[in-house]
Amino acid sequence: MKLTGVQATLLPTLYCRAVDASADKPILGDRVALATLRRIEADPDFEVDFSKVGMRPGDESAVAIRARHIDGQVADFLAAHPRATVLHIGCGLDSRAHRVDHGAEVRWIDVDYPEIVALRRRLVPEPPGDYTALGTSVTAPGWLAEVPTDRPVLVVAEGLTMYLDAGDGRLLFRGLAEYFPSGTLVFDALSTTGVKLSRRAKAIKVARAQVLWGIDSPRELESIHPSLRCAAVLNAFDLEGFVVSTTLRGRLATRVLGRIPALRQMLSIYRLEW
Prior knowledge:
Rossmann fold; 11 helices; globular
């Protein structure tokens, strides 16, 4: 796989979900991720050494806990809106459509670059139900016109916003708020301090990705469009089990970081409504 930059960041997160799935007591238990990783390893067309994607022992816990929390938000939304559209932007090789139980009345649309969507079709089985994989850059003009607006919409963006230019990110959020009559947007974001520190992370360096957009407060998000309202924000350190790691070093590090205000705010999960 000739993936570089932001596209290559799907490899470490896939690896972490797969490692978690193979654990005796998995947090997320994403068996589709594990099967996808094994499919890549067995295919001679792919030359991927997952031991060199830059993840450390214990990183899989944080990745799995974040994904589990966002899955929960999706499930809660669908419980309240059983006939809805889920728009998963920057989906990579994520198998959220398999993990979250959704009925026949849910329209699920995964969105990523055309080459990533082609890769998904080769590696990830298509989930049952009303499912579409849309190949486009989320910052390309006009792509939202392909998404119907006849149902309540939940937009999910995990591991995406930090790789967007701030101007492009604000334009994307504004476009969502103007295109859908009403909606909910769930996403994770780094603070400006988190952006600076993450540029030193091995996984980012290996992928040669650029980390650009830092968000420090709900007010920044609400200033993007008059109808946007921050309904919830949760610091990653407040996620249940976030300080649990498979290594002693990881547990100590998260506890220390959690006591330093600037570092504690590095990663947050937001829910915007309009």
